Amino acid sequence: PAQPLAPLVVEILKLRHQEVLSLLGSTLEQARTQPFRAQAERVVVALFEYLREHWGFLRVIMEGESVPGCAHKRASQDTRAEVLRLHRELIARGIRERVLRPEGRELYPVMLMSMVRGVLIHDMEAGYTGSAEERAAQVIDLFIQGAGLK
């Protein structure tokens, strides 16, 4: 069974949650005037860079998702919901620019988040040390090709 987290660790995790949300919000705001693809890449690069710098945070979050009564589970759920909201805002911009099809708009934020998460987990396990920009470009290429206008 998993050991309960020390109160200090829980506070650090809360701080990390706040940091990642602040980073995503400011990145979206700064990229507002750029074309959709550039906005999406900036958001994904910011996530990759932050979470690579804080692998331990990501690992604790993922482990806590499967532990009933985990001390930081509520904070993780709240953070995931807010990241999803920010992704919805990004996707709405892509649809307004006519880069993304409107059909399936409710799934696009989850799909993009899942792609980023999957690549992060892969990179963590594989010890990938390539650039966040390269990875972001790969993710956004695949996302736009799948969700883009035909």
Biggest sheet overview: none
How far apart the termini lie comes to 49 Å
Order of helices and strands: HHHHHH
Low-confidence stretches: none
The helix tally amounts to 6
The assigned structural class equals mainly alpha
Rounded to an integer in angstroms, the radius of gyration calculated over CA atoms is 16 Å
Q: What is the overall pLDDT average?
A: 85
Number of strands: 0
The helix content, as a percent range, equals over 70%
| Beta-strand content bin | under 5%
What is the molecular shape? globular
List the main descriptive attributes of the protein structure presented here.
single chain, 150 residues, mainly alpha, 6 helices
Explain what this protein looks like in three dimensions.
The model has no long low-confidence stretch (mean pLDDT 85). It is built from 6 helices and no strands. It starts with 6 loop residues before the first helix and ends with a helix. It has helices at residues 7-30, 36-53, 55-64, 73-96, 108-126, 132-147. The radius of gyration is 16 Å and the shape is globular. Helix 2 (36-53) crosses helix 6. Helices cover 74% and strands 0% of the residues. 25% of the residues are buried. It is an all-alpha fold.
What is the structure about, briefly put?
By secondary structure, the protein is mainly alpha-helical. Helices cover 74% and strands 0% of the residues. Helix 1 (7-30) runs antiparallel to helix 2, helix 1 runs parallel beside helix 4 (73-96) and helix 2 crosses helix 6.
